[in-house]
Amino acid sequence: MKNVNLKINGIPVSVPEGSTILEAARLAGIEIPTLCYMKDSNEIGACRICVVEATGTRGLVTACVYPVSEGMEVQTNTEKVRNARKTTLELILSTHRKDCLSCLRSTNCELHKLCHDYGVDENKFSGFNPKYKIDESTPYLVRDNTKCILCRRCVAACKEQHVSVIGPTDRGMETSIGPHFRKALLDTPCIACGQCTVVCPTGALVEKDDTDKVWKALSDPTKTVIVQTAPSVRAALGECFGMPIGTNVEGKMVAALRRLGFDKVFDTDFGADLTIVEEAHELLERIKSNSVLPMITSCSPGWVRFAEFYYPDMLNHISTCKSPMQMTGAVIKTYYAEKYGIDPGTIINVAVMPCTAKKFEITRDNMDASGYRDTDIVITTRELSRMIRRAGLMFTNLPDEDFDDPLGQDTGAAAIFGATGGVMEAALRTANDWLSGGEGEPIDFSALRGTAPIKEAQVNLGGKTIKVAVASGAKAAKEVMDKIHSGEADWTFVEIMGCPGGCVNGGGQPIQPQYVRDTTDIKALRAKALYDMDEASTIRKSHLSPVVKTLYEEYYKGSYGCKRAHHDLHTTYVARKKYM
Amino acid sequence: MKKFSNIPFKGTPEQEAQLRDWLRQNRDMQGVAMPALQKAQEIYGYLPIEVQQIVADELDIPMSELYGISTFYAQFSLSPKGEKDISVCLGTACYVKGAGAIMDELSKELGIEADECTPDGKFSLSACRCIGACGLAPVITVNGEVYGRLVPEDIPGIIAKYRD
Amino acid sequence: MKSIEELNALRRASRKLVALRDGITGTETYKYHIMVCGGTGCTSSNSEKLIELLKAEVEAHGMQDIVKVVRTGCFGLCALGRIMIVYPEGVFYSRVEPEHIHEIFEGHIVGGNPVKKYVYSETLDEDGNVKPLTETDFYRKQVRVVLRNCGVIDPESLEEYVARDGYQALAKCLSEYTPAQVVSIVSQSGLRGRGGAGFPTGKKWSFVADGPKKYIVCNADEGDPGAFMDRSVLEGDPHCIIEAMAIAGYAVGADQGYVYVRAEYPIAVHRLRVAIDEARREGLLGRHILGSDFSFDLDIRLGAGAFVCGEETALMTSIEGKRGEPRTRPPFPAVKGLFGCPTAENNVETLANIPQIILRGADWFAEMGTEKSKGTKVFALGGKINHTGLVEIPMGTTLNEIVNEIGGGVPNGKKFKAAQTGGPSGGCIPASLIDTQVDYDNLISIGCMMGSGGLIIMDEDTCMVDMAKFFLEFTVDESCGKCTPCRVGVRRLLEKLDKITEGKGTLEDLDELEYLCNYIKQNSLCGLGQTAPNPVLATLRFFRDEYLAHIVNKKCPAGVCKALLSYTIDKDKCIGCGLCAKNCPAEAIVRTDYTAPGHKLASFEILSEKCVKCGVCMDNCKKIKAISKR
After folding, report:
1. A173, C480: Cβ pair inside 8 Å?
2. Which residues in chain C (520-579) have CB-CB distances under 8 A to chain A?
């Protein structure tokens, strides 16, 4: 491709033809502020914060979408530009409910940062603003239009997920983002993925904060409070404390949880291994009995909710296995409680998840193996980071500690659950061994790794070739489901995750500012931490996990998919109507 | 924000069949959402949630998108119109010649604000952009019938004409 | 029709249909053509009834072979509606009531003598003789290119259009010119976009990029309040737009066009539909037009009430079936427009010039107008002016000629104060600049804008701050809400104006007003936002003293801004009838103990602290005129 030469603030840069001023500036090491811009998915030039002066143009132009041309001279830091940006911010602030001190996004609000940088007068403009009610209808997120700056990043994220339950409504000053007919989010086919909360630059879309519930439980002496953490939390939590993206902080995370006062710190990885043996067993049974195929994974509650709303006729494709979180929760309140003589009614299971949909998942029917809820409280990675701060723990200085026994043991197979393709890979490792009647021929999994939305492979399982597919993000899920529905695909096994890239990129993960998201492949970096853990583990196949083996020996009578296992570890789905 | 009423939906199976037929026939039209909502409004007179759902269903367009369109354009109505729909032109020519006072008078006479419908469903009132009858300014229309060169004192008489 | 020969044959056969109206007699059987205006204005006042009654008269007299009643497009003199012209004399009847029809028919058609009492007074000379409309002040300076067929033909008749050289330009393009030559002719003519910004049309066409699919879009989303020239063209001469779009399609290589029309224009939509159907039936749209390799078809898309859709990118987004929000440019529509394909978008009035330019040549067109603004411009005259209506004049005509000659001056002996052009995007020309020659560049040089051609005349009773506020209210209502400067900035601007008109403004507000205006101009995403502050900036420029009066003296010189008004009773004029006090909704009027010399009853006075400034008292004192507002 041809290159274009231009100057930005006098600095010569050469960039590929078709680049925007913003991209060129980034190459020249100059940051131009953005608010509405998201590379590829929201290039709408609406907020006007990225204005610059450029030769050959009239007035100011938006750097985020304006293409460079040969010989162009761009000025990003003139008085005119600074004043324009400042006024834009002041106008935005005149519509923004400024409860900045108590806002969940207080320390990582993109608007706040810019206002600080530009020295705005926050009360320069004031006047009429429409009134909005805060939407707290769902168990997983809170929508507050009084803080919305109408950048529409959430709309783009929701559209990327092929869900589009929120969009711009009305017009002019009364434009707002929301569901149809001003419905509560609960009354929409929202899949709870939380991707909107990750892209929101302000506190208009946040996870529903459940940390107070956790604090309350922790201070209740009559309760045994047990925490479990999902694989991908440890690959991202460090970001909340300034550590590089993709740092594995498993040890410090465990130390922090212990210091927060949890009675036991368990690992969802245990549940992941358990899921694999139950799911691999289910798959082989389905193949044997010529039952409904392809079988589709069920770990991701966002995906499950998507299927229930958008493919209600195809729910029999979904594995009946509970997710690793719910399996862990169920085992804690049944096997573990029994073994250690704890009344399950006094146990509070807390799960730290990269996910907002998990907050919904724990409210589902048939999630109470012990007669009590399998998991009681879900907090996201972000909420955990706030608890760590509130407890005054200096996270980066904590020692590395290990999970508690017995549900703290894991395999490399479980670790990679957090990345798209991980569940598939883990399941195939186990199924291959089983079908081979011992250690199977190693499988080349390279086609199933990486962050592509859809990946396909043919694998040889103990002499039998099957086709598999992996999809992440609901848009990819739709594509895969449509192919299954039309009969175009003949996969045997499909992994689907609700969020693009899988759990590492879940809706509950730490928020990186948009310019980082635009320029860094966050999902790949976080996933790499998980694959590194897998590489480093001694046991890399779920069915070889000692604790899983013990569980089946002691509790499930040595049999996968037995009646008791089925009762405790499997669940059901409901066809949901998109609109009431 | 666009007002929508809680008056129960009274659509008939015939109306639904007519709309679904149109939607099925025109499903592949480029940019079909707007014409579809226009057709729906033509059939039902307004676009309540029940009607938008039919459109969403047939065209596989998210409800949020349809609602976004229906609240963007002034002509889409989410509330049923009164039996007599009174529209006041607030174009420049009419404004200059006192359309504001005409609107006030109507509002007073009917006891409703713009974009509202009287409780008995008899009258609805709205403002509209220039209808092009500038030579007759200021003008109102009652169910499309034009009254021009008005002064506020004309209003009670016009309303009375439609009361029974 | 499969060939140009067939088109020419139809033209020859149809000539006699319209010859009488061009002053040629003896070629057809009808002795009289009665043309009744069927434009929106006259239809609004039920001109259909006239047609009905006329047809009944014809029937009753058995004159079906002698009299032809034709429903035409707008004649332009909307204020005189219902309008009717009778040929061969060209007698112009105005404000015709249904009750007049019988008398006019008996007198004029049966008796042969025009019924002068219903004839428009300005078409009668001192001796009471009827003169042609073209010799009135209103018409004399007009040059009808765009409106050449409006009021002359039956817009629903393809034959009548063809009779007046319709589709000849298309035939000429297909048979004599390459697409590049067509573009070059349009470029040479100097035609500029009539939608507002005045971008050269030929240039716009030449920018249309290569691609497998291209579109022509006709912007008929005429939204400026008070502007209705596009509607009149569509209502009066719809085939002209179809022909022009086909020519544009040929020139840029597009085979599909869309006309985006405001839904508020039902008559225009209907006539356009009829015309498209007929053109399709006659092979003037569709595959292999007139036997050539060129194919082109048209669809109509209706707007739904969003002013911003007049902006070209918003219009395309709307045709795509979405919220009509504008998109950033570049990419320009010529490169990536409708449905992502190269698109040429032109407004109705621009297109209406095209066939004539092709037929009569670029030079003919370029001779009209000024150096950089060629041809004519149609204006919709409105507001405080005697001849409300539509006029087409050569570019460069002075405002003075428009207001005082063509427009017949300001009514009621009031003083001309300013002319507002360009609607909510435009500015105003003050009385001091009344000799300005109206063209694109002159208007821009005085901080004004041609806009689509609404020309609102204001007299001394208009408060310019209030006027600016009116337009800002419009823009606030019509802002799409996408970009911050327009969505929030214009609203805050309006709030500052509110403050000023309420007498709460400060001199700092005036500075901030100006700062914000310039900020919005430079930072908004689309033309709507970029031009939204124009009415404020223009009034600040020419009528700053009025702003200062509101701010410093807390007075509205024109007596419009309610909060700054006070009503007083002239105690010597007051006859003490008490009508004002009786009707005062605020009980703010009380009797004094002063009786003016010569009156029997004591006079009244208004208690300013109770007065709500509704003006009811003044209305009640119309006869005596003892109450005034200041």
Report:
1. no
2. 521-525, 530
Question: Contact at 8 Å (CB) between A146 and A130?
Answer: no
Q: Encoding tokens for residue C280?
A: 């399709």
A302 in Cβ contact with A357 (< 8 Å): yes
Q: Are residues C396 and C434 both part of a single domain? A: yes
| C-alpha–C-alpha distance, residues C73 and C36, integer Å | 8
- What is the 3 state secondary structure string of A517-560? HHHCCHHHHHHHHHHHHHHHCCCCCHHHCHHHHHHHHHCCCCCC
Residue C409 near residue C371, CB atoms below 8 Å: no
pLDDT tens digits along A312-360: 999 999 999 999 999 999 999 999 999 999 999 999 999 999 999 999 9
**Residue A393, phi-psi category: left (phi > 0), alpha (psi -120 to 50), beta (remainder):** beta
How many structural domains does chain C have?
5
Closest CA to C382 of B98, B93, B148: B93
The two tokens of residue C250 are 């040929």
Q: Looking at the domain assignment, is residue C3 inside a domain? A: no
pLDDT in tens, C92-137: 999 999 999 999 999 999 999 999 999 998 888 888 888 888 888 8
Contact, A63 vs A22, CB < 8 A? Answer: yes
Cα of C547 to nearest chain B Cα, Å: 19
Strands C416-421 and C454-459: antiparallel
Residue among C164, C138, C130 at smallest CA distance from C150: C164
C contacts of B107 (beta carbons < 8 Å): none
CATH architecture of A212-569: 3-Layer(aba) Sandwich (3.40)
**In this complex, do A84 and C519 lie within 8 Å of one another by their Cβ atoms?**
yes
How far is the alpha carbon of C389 from chain B, nearest alpha carbon, in Å? 7
What is the Cα gyration radius of chain A? Answer: 25
Domain topology for B84-163: Glutaredoxin (3.40.30)
Using alpha carbons only, what angle is made at residue C274 by residues C160 and C240, rounded to the nearest 5 degrees?
Answer: 50
pLDDT of B93: 67
Asked whether A402 and A267 are in contact (CB, 8 A), the reply is no
Residue C323 has pLDDT above 90, yes or no: yes
| Nearby residues of A483 by Cβ (< 8 Å), 6 or more positions away | A489
Largest separation between any pair of C-alpha atoms in chain B: 52
Establish if C143 belongs to a structural domain.
no
Q: Do residues A348 and A225 make contact, with C-beta atoms less than 8 angstroms apart?
A: yes
Residues of A in contact with B68 (CB under 8 A): 167-169
Q: Is C500 helix (H, G, I), strand (E, B) or coil?
A: helix
Structural domain that includes position C405: 376-459
What's the complex ipTM?
0.94
User: Which residue, among A407, A415, A399, A356, has the nearest Cα to A232 in the 3D structure?
Assistant: A415
Q: Into which CATH architecture does domain A93-207 fall? A: 2-Layer Sandwich (3.30)
| Contact pairs from chain A to chain C, CB under 8 Å | 94
Shortest distance, CA B132 to any CA of chain C (angstroms): 6
Pairing state between β A205-207 and A141-143: antiparallel
Matching residue, tokens 């107008």: C369
Length of chain A: 580
CB atoms within 10 A of CB A100: 18
CA–CA separation, C521 and C532 (whole Å): 7
Q: Are B72 and C324 in contact (CB under 8 A)?
A: yes
Burial class (CB in 10 A: 0-12, 13-18, 19+), B153: exposed
User: How far apart are alpha carbons A20 and A95 in whole angstroms?
Assistant: 30
For residue C69, the SS3 value is strand
What SS3 class is residue A64? coil
Q: What are phi and psi of B51, to 5 degrees?
A: -75, -45
Q: C258-280 burial string, b = 16+ CB within 10 Å, else e?
A: bbbbbbbbebbbebbebbbebbe
Query: Nearest residue of B to residue A170 by CA position?
Result: B71
Q: How far is CA A194 from the centre of its chain?
A: 7
The pair of structure tokens assigned to B148 is 């021009």
